[in-house]
Amino acid sequence: MYQTQSAIASEHKTYLIADLPEHERPRERLLQQGVEALSDTELLAILLRSGTRDRSAVDLARDVLATADGSLARLAAASVTDLARVRGIGQAKAIEIQAAFALAKRLRETLAGERFRIQNPADVGELLREQLRGKPQEEFHVLLLDTRNYVLRDECTTVGLVDRSQIHAREVFRSAIRENCSRVVLAHNHPSGDPTPSPQDIECTRSLVSAGKVIGIDVLDHVVLGTRTPARPRDFVSFRESNLL
Whole-prediction pTM value? Predict the structure, then answer.
């Protein structure tokens, strides 16, 4: 049978991110929820911009990551030729992907001389205070440290109440394991302003410390941030200083 013009147009259509339902569009999710809310696949999809006749940019991004077993490090090491072998990734898209990783590498090298070092709980407060100020919900952060306690990365793993039902060791230590990091500092905020650890905070932290010992990752401290008041000049509480670890 002869195809109608609309059928032919549909067959040759390039699937764009705009073709996805609005709640699944990475660009819209980034604007509404922030870049931290997006997965590696979604961020890569934004970079790719368009998909192929039968797959969206998100599907294509998923295929690209699959060739590197989901590892951004392996993907960053891939050559233009390797990337272009993925169906739907031509030379132009392969070059764009490699250029993005090259920029990220240069940024990392630029910041290497400006890295933040955690030497005491006050340093944790200095690093996270402005980021957490005024947040209406608790945010649980994991600071990945190198052997000299320089911060490699700050990751927000959970938003919501800090308790064992929501904070899982696999989420807390996943990036540390991937980055071959042997020490971390935990931190979260109390929107109430009172940084005094709750029983749930203590129980959760001790559980994570135990899990860290099993897999060889030291939890150096857990710092809870609140708000300064005339009666409370320090706006944070250190589990280590309080002998709660």
Answer: 0.55
